[in-house]
Amino acid sequence: MATVTYDKASRIYPGTERPAVDQLDLQIADGEFLVLVGPSGCGKSTSLRMLAGLEDVDKGAIFVGDRDVTHVQPKDRDIAMVFQSYALYPHMTVADNMGFALKIAKVDKATIRERVEAAAKILDLTEYLDRKPKALSGGQRQRVAMGRAIVRQPQVFLMDEPLSNLDAKLRVQTRTQIAALQRRLGTTTVYVTHDQVEALTMGDRIAVLKDGLLQQVGTPREMYDTPQNVFVAGFIGSPAMNLSTFRVEDGYALVGDSKVQLERDTVANMTADDKGDVILGFRPESLDRVAPNTPGAFPVEVNVVEELGSDAFVYGTLPTPLATASEVTVGGSGEGIVRVDPRDVPSKGDTIWVSIRPGEQHVFSAATQQRISTHAVQTDASRTLAK
Amino acid sequence: MPHITGAADPALMELPWDIPLSAWPEDRIAALPRGLSRHVVRFVRHGGNVLAVKETNREIAYREFQMLRELERMETPCVHAVAVVTRRFTPTGEELSAALVTEHLAFSLPYRALFSTALRKGTLNRLIDALSVLLVRLHLNGFYWGDVSLSNALFRRDASEFSAYLVDAETGDLHETLTDGQRSYDLEIATTNIIGEILDLQANEDLDEGIDPFAIGERLESKYGKLWAALTETETFAANVPFKVAERVRELNELGFDVGELDMLSTPDGQGLRIRPKVVDAGFHSRRLMRLTGLDVQENQARRLLNDLDEFRAVRSGGHDDEAFAAHEWLTSIFEPTVRAVPRDLRGKLEPAQVFHEVLDHRWYLAESAGKDVPMPVATASYVKHVLPLRPDERAVLGRSLAEMTAELPALTDEVGTEFETRDPFENDNTYAWGEVPAPEPGTEPPPTVRRATTRVPAPERSPLSGEIDERHQRAADAAEAEEDEAAASEEAGF
User: Fold this and answer.
1) Considering only alpha carbons, which residue of chain B is nearest residue A79?
2) What ipTM is given for this predicted complex?
3) CB-based contact (8 Å) between B36 and chain A?
């Protein structure tokens, strides 16, 4: 077991100006399950491969425990890349399938058997050890493949989008299994995905990257409740947070013809660079349907209703944001999402009136896109995430 | 309607895309031997061709398609990607996996097919050598394979060696250049996979126990290391520089590589010269043969043909003839008559260049036993009569039994039944099935019958709720297994 430390580690591909990974500073605790997440091209896979030794570290350093592995060959790093796509050998027993790679590493037979048995116990495969893979179910075969990595007893497991070629149902199952298995093994794990739902459900902590830059690291709950900037706010959570740039007058954001009161200390954090605008964010579950004359209420024109049984979401048009001064405006198209009671669903073309629940505003600077709200926002959806 | 990207072949639409690949009708399926795969893969007859169809998800299919096309553009040995098929729906509207369609490489053999006939000593070594050359070529082009194995390559006979072709690029990545870490990790994966594959062959008694899988792994590493070093190493010369440089280029040509660019740099003390090959292209001999004769063959075949051509030119004119002129004469008076002497119905056995190589070998043996030179026409006639008919058909190889060759063991999909009833392993021997001749000589056994029905035993029923195997079925299956064990035990005991 070991910690992993990225110390201002950069990867700059030959012939490019902008680093693919830019001074990544990240400490991963012993036994932690850390998920690197971000859109394609954000540098998450490159970061993982730098740790694996597959990409050079052009600046900075990477440590596994106290050991600087920056210039160590992949096979000498005591790290295992886990594939879900290992081939199983049909004529070899489950035990041999799991243990043969140790023979290559010249581990003695008794130790191999010992490690295979230990891994089989964790994977619930003990009774199948002397059988052939064809006797196993799909899920069991997959666990045998995991077993191949486990018997190596590496310091760190690395997984790069391991679920990407599974169908949706199997993906959800496997996701749970991997997370549970990691907790049982207690081995430090770095996991890469583009899927923020996967990140929220699996990680002890999540690191969000964009354009090679680390945006924020935190527990799923922290990422959801206190996104540090507009990018993280929009990226984490499904359906996504509503985000738009609005003009602020006398402590109120002008949402169409309506006025939404902002919190006092938030307004105090605005600077001259914001030119009187803020980016206001609110999650679909932070809206209540109210009467049109309620203070802070604004209308939403219903375009599409998505009913998911326990929940229903309205995809609609919000009042046009009034933001004139900002150079960059967010969410100019006026699209928005509202969670509504599935037993009382409006029809397409209706106009519903909604207001943001008290204390559930996320406010960001229009100039820097950094968070200026001073408190964490807890919604009923965030309470389902691990702390 | 399925959506087909990539192929300029409307007939592709006619394939039954609305059925899962695993259930495609038998008359569509060509029984070709193949390696282990985690996806459903089938070889499909399509017009005059055989296509390989692999089911996978959409993103992976598109990615692999583009990767294969890119590799092909860079002239690395790989299969030709034909199309990606998406938006496949069953008649009831259920969506099916996307499919990647590649062309089956004619005269190619998966490694398992090479072991299913009696293994000639050294075959395995030659496969490993071929794979190491392929890996070096891919790495030179910046391709990180990620899942190197015997299963993910196809092999073609190339004179007395093999050439390897990449067939599965799913896990690969193209980079500007590879880091040492990427290369060494790729090699590590290769070693592990190959050792696993060999252990598996041994577990099934397809391969002699005497072969040491671990030595094979080391062979790959050392072959790869030597070739990589020869192609990329920086050398420093202090004296006799032009000769040393020419020598280095000649060595690379000998290995089958052209040197496109050479980096030369004076050493800091100004006394010596540092050289490093910058751009090397495989196919030195095959390009020379192509230029001289228009024949498009593999590297070692080209080497063999060129040797014969050079010898021909030396004997004819003492080497004074113009090279192009001699090449033309050799082509029309030696090569073409030899290849044409193969009866039409035996042409599916080997590629023409491979036939020529074997005739040359055959001629050598004839000459040795006769104690004098044997003219080419005599050697050809003897080869066509005595040797070629005994060779298996390799244009599109039929394997041992259809069931075995279409059996799959995907690591992940919970598929329908993987049990197959055992049948006579030779019953689907295709020696007589592909083409009409050779007619059996009197007194030999009658041609074996070909059964094309699947031998798949239906999967035990699983409870729709828990996914557990239904107990009654399980008991029946257990009983059958016990019976089988008993039979095996009594057989061992000598009954």
Assistant:
1) B185
2) 0.81
3) yes
